[in-house]
Design brief:
Layout lengths: L2 H6 L6 H16 L12 E3 L1 H9 L5 E5 L11 H8 L3 E4 L2 H7 L7 E4 L7 H16 L2 H5 L8 H24 L4
Parallel strand pairs: 2-3
Antiparallel strand pairs: 1-4, 2-4
Protein name: 60S ribosomal protein L7a
Family: Belongs to the eukaryotic ribosomal protein eL8 family.
GO molecular function: RNA binding
């Protein structure tokens, strides 16, 4: 079972389903019965909401999209998850996360609670996330970038070549060539 099959079980209700639930509750209340409502266990979404759930250590598993633009919106989330010991995964597409929560896109989603039947599956995914992302020393200590543009590379090559020629001239003038 993948992460998305587990999260599919905990999708939030659609607006139509919510409307239907409210109508049924109103009909039950009109009939004199107390409407029975328990908050469903669903995927939480929205950057602000996910952040507060991580800070309160209520999030069980956090999924972060890799194609968020600007990246500064989510680039600090892995560090926060590591600090709070919350397992996180970086997944491929923000549109795929958005489809889980009936939106176009979602930068980050998280699970807070699951049914007892899915607890073992969640535990497996948490262990995988801890191993691949939270406690991965390569991801922590590897600096990205450092790639210079073509103009800078040409300038440095030209400078190195000039220095080599200068060194050759010095050696030739000393008679050691």
């Amino acid at each position: 079972m993948t992460v998305f099959t587990l999260l599919n079980k905990y999708r939030p209700e659609t607006p139509a389903a919510k409307k239907q639930r409210i109508k049924e509750a109103a009909a039950a209340k009109a009939a004199g019965k107390e409407p029975e409502y328990t908050r469903p266990k669903t995927v939480q979404y929205g950057l602000k909401n996910v952040t507060s759930l991580i800070e309160e250590k209520e999030a069980s598993l956090v999924l972060i999209a890799n194609d968020v633009d600007p990246i500064e919106l989510v680039m600090w989330l892995p560090a926060l998850c590591r600090k709070m010991n919350v397992p996180y995964m970086i997944v491929k597409d923000k549109a795929r996360l958005g489809a889980l929560v009936h939106m176009k896109t979602a930068a980050a989603v998280c699970l807070t609670q699951v049914e007892k039947a899915d607890a073992s599956q969640l535990q497996l995914l948490q262990n995988l996330a801890e191993e691949k992302f939270n406690k991965n020393p390569d991801a922590l200590r590897k600096w990205g970038g450092g790639i210079m543009g073509l103009k800078t590379q040409a300038k440095l090559d030209k400078r190195a070549k000039a220095m080599a020629e200068e060194e050759a001239k010095k050696l030739a003038s000393l008679g050691r060539a």
